[in-house]
Amino acid sequence: xxxxERSASPAAASAASARAHRVFxxxxxxxxxxxxxxxxxxxxxVAFPTHLVLIAQVLITGLFALSFDLLVGYAGIPSLGHAxxxxxxAYTAGLLARAGWGEPISGLLAAALVAGIFGLLxxxxxxxxxxxxxxxxxxxxGLLLYEAAHSARDLTGGDDGLSGITMWPVLGQFPFDFYxxxxxxxxxxVVFLLYLVARRIVNSPxxxxxxxxxxxxxRVPAIGVPLRYRYMVAFTVSAALAGVAGGLLxxxxxxxxxxxxxxxxSASVLIMVMIGGMGTxxxxxxxxxxxxxxxxxxxxLNPVYWNFWVGLLLVLFVLFARGGLIGGADRFIAWIKSRxxxx
Amino acid sequence: xxxxxxxxxxxxxxxxxxxxxxxxxxxxxxxxxxxCRHALIGPNGSGKTTLINxxxxxxxxxxxxxxxxGHDVTHANASTRVVRGLTRTFQxxxxxxxxTPIEAVTMVVxxxxxxxxxxxxxxRGSRDAIDEAYAILEQMHLADDCDxxxxxxxxxRQRLLEIALALATKPTVLLLDEPAAGVPQQQSGEIFExxxxxxxxxxxxxxxxxxxxxxxxxxxITVLVAGKILCEGTPAEIAADPxxxxxxxxxxxx
Lengths: 343, 254
Fold this sequence. Notes:
The structure holds 2 protein chains of 2 kinds.
Chain A: H1 10-28, H2 32-47, H3 52-74, H4 83-98, H5 104-126, H6 131-151, H7 153-156, H8 181-202, H9 205-215, H10 227-253, H11 263-276, H12 282-301, H13 306-320, H14 324-342
Chain B: E1 10-19, E2 22-32, E3 37-41, H1 48-56, E4 63-68, E5 71-72, H2 78-84, E6 86-88, H3 101-113, H4 127-139, H5 155-167, E7 173-177, H6 185-196, E8 203-207, H7 211-217, E9 220-225, E10 228-233, H8 235-240, H9 242-249
Parallel strand pairs in B: 3-8, 3-9, 6-7, 7-8
Antiparallel strand pairs in B: 1-2, 1-4, 4-5, 9-10
Helix pairs in contact in B: 3-4, 3-5, 5-6
């Protein structure tokens, strides 16, 4: 028994170094699930012309879940108040349009900016915390913002929500129509572009360090990583993306309900990412889609029992389907490949 | 970064740490010349790991000074010390279970090269960093395992990865807290052969309980007892010291 095996001919060594590069090539290449998701999303716009608003909302929730996955799935930073960023983005875009500036793209930038700055400020406070303390602070901040929006009726409309939002045409060309055609295409393009950005981030050195933080938060300072700054950037980017999602919802529905800040939203995004598969990005989108479509179908059948099914689904997924939908799909693809290889 | 070449790599002056009334590090004056292979020995509870924690920045000393390469780093945090050239490993594996060794070491290389925080740079395109990481794994005899999840590696090879991670920071001072901890005795020599083969410009401080290994690989030995330096010297001097023999080594040694 030895630890070190000395063998490796020079040829074997160079083949092995190619193996090292392949590790990074493999993790950055497009997976089947990603391609399938985006083709299905585009196809559904064509196939279900009467459900365009639902499709847009699924994509928006998917973007929100994606922003959450960056924080929880990649960096391992838990949060129970992620709706705070979504809500801030929604109110920012909504109020901006109500104040008379209805240009959509700059509205999204404003939503990203406000949510991002709030995320940065929060991260300065929480970047020294981990685990339960972090969960409690994010939960508290989420509840705080909800109540603040609730009582600031003059600004937010309180329980009644914010209405009277009028959006200008997208790029000055495409007015929002009654059927939601512009809304769904606008949403699709924005979410897809931000998906590409998020993909780029998780396959960068920063993304690798986020995984390092998730895998061993105590070790990373000992290899020279300034943990605090990484936390701050992760929070800010995640918050800004969530803010864009909120802003999109405000723009395409032309209302902002108080529920954008609700605890329910913070909790359900966690469920979506769990169901879809944490730390995969596409899992967040798939989880959001599965959750929302199931909610739509099941609450049609029996609205009272929706939470029963959510609970059951969650327990089953955690117990039997680790890695969620994407983990399951990975295993399925691997099984097909092995069958084909074996035949 | 411009201490005179003759200066020591690491010096402590009157370093103290107490937890309440418990004095775990007691006026430690300690110096490591460049390139030394320095062993830290002492009975259980003598404060060896505490000393490593103080040097590495995991603990803040109660009083005293730590000077790295001519710079006072007493109040610098762990990651700043790494940037200045002082890196440690851990007695219990502190690795990244679901990352492969090549990912873990590449992460460290990117960080050291100054783009560890870059969001939009392609990791896959950072071929130089990956090549450097691979070379370090080769040096640590881990090339064969470079693309397997760390959690699946044999324990002894995980110990080597601990050292590989530290090595990727290009340290001038390397602190190894029981590098062979948990490795079966007949294999721990292999870990130390790897340590012995490290570049000569790295000053290495290691804690090790196996006295045979200590005498085989150390160029200097410091004996710590109850937080205090009992004595310090070459292996021959330590072996001849009557007090060391009485307190720590027993009479059976060498």
